[in-house]
Design brief:
Elements: H1 2-17, E1 21-22, E2 26-27, E3 32-38, E4 41-48, E5 56-61, H2 67-72, E6 77-81, H3 84-99
Antiparallel strand pairs: 1-3, 2-3, 3-4, 4-5, 5-6
Length: 107
């Protein structure tokens, strides 16, 4: 968990450097969680320890639940990244997709 904690802190720092508010990662059992604020919306970041790779693994979701539930929930998007800056960029991009409101069709 130490490696994932250090990476999560680095990712949060990068998100803040991009100008977004982001909470410090908190240990919640089998994962770490943080929250990022974009355009008055809050997205939950679940930092997970990948089993077979050294990539940074983060699940973005609007649900508040445990680590296991976040992994298996069909709601949300995953980020796999090689470094904290890449992860931060992908998190912001995907978080914007999560909070985007569906466009209404033609009238």
């Amino acid at each position: 968990m130490k490696k994932i904690a250090a990476e999560a802190r680095e990712v949060v720092k990068e998100i803040r450097d991009l100008g977004y508010r982001c909470s410090e990662p908190e240990d919640v059992g089998d994962c770490l969680e943080s929250y990022v604020e974009l355009d008055d919306n809050v997205v939950r970041l679940v930092f997970l320890q990948p089993r077979y790779t050294d990539l940074i693994l983060v699940k973005l979701t609007d649900e508040v639940s445990g680590c296991e539930e976040a992994i298996y929930s069909p709601r949300g998007l995953y980020v796999l990244a090689n470094n904290p800056r890449e992860a931060a960029d992908a998190i912001i991009s995907k978080a914007k997709m999560l909070i985007a409101k569906p466009r209404s069709g033609p009238s």
